[in-house]
Amino acid sequence: MDLGIAGRKAIVCASSKGLGRACAEQLAAEGVKVVISARSAGPLEATADAIRSAGGEAVAVVCDVTAPEGRAALLEACPDPDILINNAGGPPPGDFRNWARDDWIKAIDANMLTAIELIKMTVDGMMQRRFGRIVNITSAAVKAPIDVLGLSNGARAGLTGFCAGIARQTVRRNVTLNGLLPGPFDTDRLTGTLAAVAKKQGKSIEEAAEERAKNNPAGRFGDPAEFGQACAFLCSAKAGFITGQNIVLDGGAFPGTL
Ligand code: NAP
Prior knowledge:
The chain is globular. Helix content is 47%, strand content 15%. It is an alpha/beta fold. It contains 8 helices and 7 strands, in the order E-H-E-H-E-H-E-H-E-H-E-H-H-H-E. It has helices at residues 18-29, 41-53, 68-77, 101-129, 150-170, 188-201, 205-215, 224-234, and strands at residues 9-12, 33-38, 57-62, 83-86, 132-137, 175-182, 246-249. Helix 5 links the parallel strand 5 (132-137) and strand 6 (175-182). Strands 3-2-1-4-5-6-7 form a 7-stranded parallel β-sheet, sandwiched between helices. The site of NADP nicotinamide-adenine-dinucleotide phosphate (NAP) has 29 residues, from helix 1, strand 2 and helix 6.
């Protein structure tokens, strides 16, 4: 299927690795010009080179997307994006008894307010141009909270609630807003969370990973490319009737009927 977005422009936040990178690669494969970003220059340049070697167009912006200057740098590189993929690193696990106000502010800044600011900076232009696709990378924890990830559960639920309110106001102008909720995908972030689980349970990371993958209905972790492909479809010209949705990609781990 031709997704109908060749020549469109995208800002893909936090995209030198993992899920953000996979989204950038799939969009670039569809002919979208992508602006990618991360705080460390080396892996970001390597990702931009990989996209270009595969025939895509990529501009790399080294920045912290959670800082106002970082978001301004992204908009400077791509002033009129057609597509915005909101993403940032996830907050650390822990016990809520140990979190101070500053820990909450950091999590809310990274996983709620950063996305809201970027939406504010781009959505009116998209509506004027009669095309826009906004995808927030959140977490399956929005639907089924993970106890040790309370900072993530809280901040991402806030973003999801806000977006539910505006997704219905923009779709008449062909601007959609949806959430993609990853379950376990094989990325550095997953390895990091598994390391914490392994330590707590006195196992090796390999044992913890094997057990977690085996317990998923799919019997495996997700491949980031599968995530990128779902993202590219939601950003496509064909997906203009899908808005305000939160789509879980978790191999069937969420046990509900709906
Ligand atoms: P990852 O493999 O660790 O990649 C994170 C990417 O984001 C890197 O490119 C990193 O580069 C960049 N980044 C992080 N903070 C940034 C910032 N402040 N500004 C700009 N770039 C930043 O993580 P992932 O697995 O793709 O996860 C992406 C998101 O999905 C996270 O919020 C994570 O919590 C969530 N999630 C992931 C899973 C999973 O199984 N993988 C499951 C549920 C939710 P730099 O470090 O160089 O900045």
